[in-house]
Amino acid sequence: MRRVISRAGVLFAATLLFLPSGELFAKGGGKGGSKGGTVNVRPYTKKDGTYVGPHHRTAPDSSKANNWSTKGNSNPYTGKTGAKEP
Fold first, then answer.
1. In this structure, are residues 82 and 71 in contact, taking their beta carbons and an 8 Å threshold?
2. What pLDDT is attached to residue 85?
3. CA pair distance 64, 16, nearest whole angstrom
4. Which residues, other chains included, contact 80 with Cβ-Cβ below 8 Å and sequence gap of 6+?
5. Boundaries of every domain in the chain
6. What is the mean pLDDT of the chain?
7. 35 membership: H or E segment, kind and range
8. Alpha carbon of residue 17 to chain centroid
C-alpha cells in the first residue's frame, strides 16, 4: 500500500530540521536561575599575557538590574547570588 503525505506534513518535517535548539530562543531577564540571555565567551589572552578561560556572562543590554551580579539575581551556572546594588 502506498502512503500519501500531505504538503503540510512535508513542510512541517522540513521546518523541524532547520530549527535551532530551544536554548537559542531563550530571552534574558528574570530573577533566579534562568539561563536565558546568556552569552558564551570564548577563551582569549589579554594584552598583558593573562589567559582568560571560556565562560558565560549575561547578554549585553542597557540595564544593570538584570545582571547576575546584581542583588536579587543569581548565576545559573555557579549558584552564586548577586551582591551589587541595582
1. yes
2. 87
3. 36
4. 68, 74
5. 21-86
6. 75
7. none
8. 21
Q: What is the average pLDDT across 71-79?
A: 90
The b/e string for 7-35 (b: 16+ C-beta within 10 A; e otherwise) is eeeeeeeeeeeeeeeeeeeeebeeeeebe
Strand partners, 19: none
Structural contact between residues 75 and 32, judged by C-beta atoms closer than 8 angstroms = no
pLDDT reading at 1 higher than 70: no
Burial category of 56 from C-beta neighbours within 10 Å (exposed 0-12, middle 13-18, buried 19 and up): middle
Looking at the predicted structure, is the pLDDT value of residue 24 above 90? Answer: no
